[in-house]
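Something for you to look into today, if you have time. Just paste the record in under my message, thanks.
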Amino acid sequence: MISPSAQAIRRYLLQSKITGAEAARRGYLSGGQAVRKYTGGTKPHRISGAVWFAWHAHQMLDAEIIAKIECAMERDAKPEL
């Protein structure tokens, strides 16, 4: 798994012009404070590959594809009846 440093994550967000709140939304996190745990403090958490992938997918895929994926995620998250 690719595990970027806190510095690399900060650089990616800055270069991509993504705010903490937007990064949280794109990474399916609870909010900007969840993003800060990967970028700040004396001992930042390691980011999951899923979040790192989601940020890049949102940068590279168009809105229609993202919407289709999110619909499938929501559909597949429902319990069977």
